[in-house]
Amino acid sequence: MPIELSQRRECGGTWVVDVNLGRSPTAAELTALAQRYGGRCRQFQQLIWLDLPSGRITASLRLSRLTIRLGDKTLEAAIIADLQQLAEDTGVACGMDV
């Protein structure tokens, strides 16, 4: 099943994309994702920031949701595709919350 995506506007007027993987990502998975796109990973306890050339992704090692704040829509689509593949590889299905 596909990952769950939702888009929302933040206070400054910028749009962000929330991605629900259906499970918490691992630090190794997030580090590999950042390196694949020329970024770096920073961690403080359970919080992780993926600093990429065109923005940032924030994640938690305890939550299934990642927040994507990127200025490059092509890069955003590629990362979402990678996250979809990651969810499919682990056999995790995400559903819609009602």
Description:
With 98 residues, the chain is α+β, with helices and mostly antiparallel strands. The protein contains 2 helices and 6 strands, in the order ββαββββα. It has helices spanning 27-36, 73-89; strands spanning 4-9, 15-20, 40-44, 47-52, 55-60, 65-70. Strands 1-2-6-5-4-3 form a 6-stranded antiparallel sheet, covered by helices on one side. The longest helix has 17 residues, at 73-89. It is globular and about 35 Å long. The two termini are 17 Å apart. Residues 92-98 have low confidence and may be disordered.
Q: DSSP strand (E) fraction?
A: 35-45%
Uncertain stretches: 92-98
| End-to-end distance | 17 Å
Widest sheet, order of strands: 1-2-6-5-4-3
Topology as a string of helices (H) and strands (E) = EEHEEEEH
According to DSSP, the number of beta strands is: 6
How helix-rich are the residues, as a percent range?
A: 25-40%
Based on secondary structure, the structural category is alpha+beta
Biggest pleated sheet: 6 strands, antiparallel
Structural key phrases:
about 100 residues; alpha+beta; six-stranded antiparallel beta sheet; globular; disordered C terminus
Strand and helix map with partners:
Layout: E1 4-9, E2 15-20, H1 27-36, E3 40-44, E4 47-52, E5 55-60, E6 65-70, H2 73-89
